[in-house]
């Protein structure tokens, strides 16, 4: 029971005390504002400067517009100064030391952001000020500022940016209002991490500038925001697709020429890179400074354009027809003999372990010796007829003909066919021919001149067919040589462009680091 009475008594005492403090605070405010004007600088001596202490706390980076070069940030701005006309004796007001009043009731310094980039007013909000009995006023206010920032995108997306926030009095010079720094840098203790930018510091420096219009000094405090772009997003969405597309360009040389898609692949890759280039150009400011990834895109597009042009040139070589000239001797030695081995270009059925003697040659001798279907032992005689080859005489191995005598006194000739069977003019023996074949009355020993006109015509037809086949074979060999030259050049340029893509990728990574 006693405890309950004690608690009730304590609560009533606190209530009375708070009511007393509220009464004294209202009386204090009325006494302070009785003859006070917030339009004049609150100093007792007008020749002395009023010191204002400025502290900036960076809370969040809301946006960085690289194209318009505008930084949007959320700041907490603290300003501290002494008002000579807002002092009181705390003992006269029941020990009241601090009161909070609206900021528009007191004089405030006109400190603004010099390099703001928006049309609307983005100054501190009209929050309350904290007034102490010794005349010290503390004004904490949040502000969303849009400041101009010179963006250097030379190393985009691996770039660093330095954005300045310059604060100073707009109308008072340094002899009237002097600005001091509360800290050597901005406060980052309450900074909210940004998804695109990393904050590496916010150093501050005080500048005193003499403008041409006035002889008085104008102090300002410049906070430099050090930002580093988080490049992971751009690596996975812009850089890696470009690198992978770039590695597709040399593969157009590996694609078979008969597929008809070599040029189409190069054009498709070029169009894909153009789309990525437009995406980068839309987000970058229009300046002479080309970003690093833009340079990589341009270099890759130049390389793909060159590869497409070379592909067209090589396809022209591949599809050389019968009207093409033979492959030059230097090309045979350099490209077909040496470069084909270096780049492992072989014909069908060949590989690097196939002996040289077993490889199909490009240059074949005449299929029929020196051009005669019978070889080098046959030649024309003085009468323009052909000497008969030995196998066309119907002899046995001992050089004698096998004959039989018919009842009417005529001779019956027995001949040996190709299949080994014997045949005679009037009948079939052992699988020979049945038709009558006219033979001369006498057969001279070898060599004997062929007097059969039908046989000579047959020989001429065979030689004509052989000549046509030889010309066709030579044309095919010439076309095969040009195709092999084109294939070797395809392999050569494929490796050259692979090396170029690899070196460009390494170069851009080294510059980024």
CATH class of the domain at 32-230: Mainly Beta
Alpha carbon gap, first and last residue? 77 Å
Strand content: 15-25%
Name the helicity range: 25-40%
Unreliable stretches: 12-19, 356-449
Q: Would you identify the CATH H-level superfamily of the domain at 32-230? A: Neurotransmitter-gated ion-channel ligand-binding domain
H/E element order: HEEEEEEEEEEEHHHHHEEEEH
Biggest sheet: strand arrangement: 3-5-6-2-1-8
Largest sheet data: 6 strands, mixed
Task: Give the overall average pLDDT.
Answer: 75
The SS-based structural class is: alpha+beta
Radius of gyration: 52 Å
Instruction: Examine the coordinates and then state which fold CATH places here, giving the name of the CATH topology of the domain at 32-230.
Output: Acetylcholine Binding Protein, Chain: A
Q: What CATH architecture of the domain at 32-230 would you give? A: Distorted Sandwich
Oligomeric state, counting identical vs distinct chains: single chain
Note the overall shape.
Answer: rod-shaped
User: Number of helical segments?
Assistant: 7
Number of strands: 15
Q: How are the secondary structure elements laid out?
A:
Layout: H1 2-32, E1 50-65, E2 70-82, E3 98-102, E4 111-113, E5 128-132, E6 136-148, E7 160-169, E8 177-181, E9 197-199, E10 204-210, E11 217-229, H2 232-248, H3 251-254, H4 262-283, H5 292-318, H6 329-342, E12 402-405, E13 411-416, E14 422-424, E15 427-428, H7 453-512
Parallel strand pairs: 1-8
Antiparallel strand pairs: 1-2, 2-6, 3-5, 4-7, 5-6, 7-11, 9-11, 10-11, 12-13, 13-14, 14-15
Main location: membrane
Family: Belongs to the ligand-gated ion channel (TC 1.A.9) family. Acetylcholine receptor (TC 1.A.9.1) subfamily.
Keywords: Cell membrane, Disulfide bond, Glycoprotein, Ion channel, Ion transport, Ligand-gated ion channel, Membrane, Postsynaptic cell membrane, Receptor, Signal, Synapse, Transmembrane, Transmembrane helix, Transport
């Amino acid at each position: 029971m006693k405890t309950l009475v004690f608690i009730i008594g304590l609560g009533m005492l606190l209530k009375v005390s708070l009511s007393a403090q509220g009464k004294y605070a209202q009386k204090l405010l009325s006494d302070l504002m009785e003859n006070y004007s917030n339009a004049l600088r609150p100093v007792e001596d007008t020749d002395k400067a009023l010191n204002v202490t400025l502290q900036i706390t960076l809370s969040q980076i809301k946006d960085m517009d690289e194209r318009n070069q505008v930084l949007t940030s959320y700041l907490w701005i603290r300003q501290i100064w002494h008002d000579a006309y807002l002092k009181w004796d705390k003992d006269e007001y029941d020990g009241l030391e601090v009161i909070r009043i609206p900021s528009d009731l007191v004089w405030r310094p006109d400190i603004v952001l010099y390099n703001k980039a928006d049309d609307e007013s983005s100054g501190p909000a009209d929050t309350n000020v904290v007034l102490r009995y010794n005349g010290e006023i503390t004004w904490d206010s949040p502000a969303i500022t849009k400041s101009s920032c010179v963006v250097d995108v030379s190393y985009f997306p691996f770039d660093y940016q330095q954005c300045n926030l310059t604060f100073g009095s707009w109308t008072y010079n340094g002899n009237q209002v002097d600005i001091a720094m509360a800290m050597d840098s901005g406060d980052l203790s309450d900074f909210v991490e940004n998804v695109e930018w990393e904050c590496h510091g916010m150093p501050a420096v005080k500048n005193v500038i003499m403008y041409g219009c006035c002889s008085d000094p104008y102090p300002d405090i410049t906070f430099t925001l050090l930002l580093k772009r988080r490049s992971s997003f751009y690596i996975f969405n812009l850089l890696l697709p470009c690198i992978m597309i770039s590695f597709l360009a040399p593969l157009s040389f590996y694609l078979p020429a008969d597929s008809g898609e070599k040029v189409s692949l190069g054009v498709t890759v070029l169009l894909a890179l153009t789309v990525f280039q437009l995406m980068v150009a839309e987000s970058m400011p229009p300046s002479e400074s080309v970003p690093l990834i833009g340079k990589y895109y341009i270099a890759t597009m130049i390389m793909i354009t060159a590869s497409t042009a070379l592909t067209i040139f090589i396809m022209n070589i591949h599809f050389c027809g019968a009207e093409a000239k033979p492959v030059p001797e230097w090309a045979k030695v350099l490209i077909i003999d040496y470069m084909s081995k270096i780049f492992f270009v072989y014909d069908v059925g060949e590989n690097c372990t196939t002996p040289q003697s077993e490889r199909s040659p490009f240059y074949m001798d005449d299929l029929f010796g020196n051009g005669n279907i019978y070889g080098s032992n046959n030649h024309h005689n003085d009468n323009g007829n052909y000497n008969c080859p030995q196998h066309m005489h119907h002899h046995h191995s001992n050089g004698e003909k096998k004959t039989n005598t018919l009842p009417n006194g005529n001779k019956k000739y027995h001949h040996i066919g190709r299949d080994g069977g014997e045949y005679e003019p009037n009948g079939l023996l052992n699988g020979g021919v049945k038709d009558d074949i006219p033979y001369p009355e006498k057969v001279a020993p070898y060599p004997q001149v062929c007097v059969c006109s039908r046989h000579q015509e047959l020989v001429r037809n065979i030689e004509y067919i052989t000549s046509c086949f030889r010309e066709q074979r030579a044309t095919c060999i010439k076309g095969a040589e040009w195709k092999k030259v084109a294939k070797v050049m395809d392999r050569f340029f494929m490796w050259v462009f692979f090396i170029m893509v690899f070196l460009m990728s390494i170069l851009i990574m080294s510059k980024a680091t």
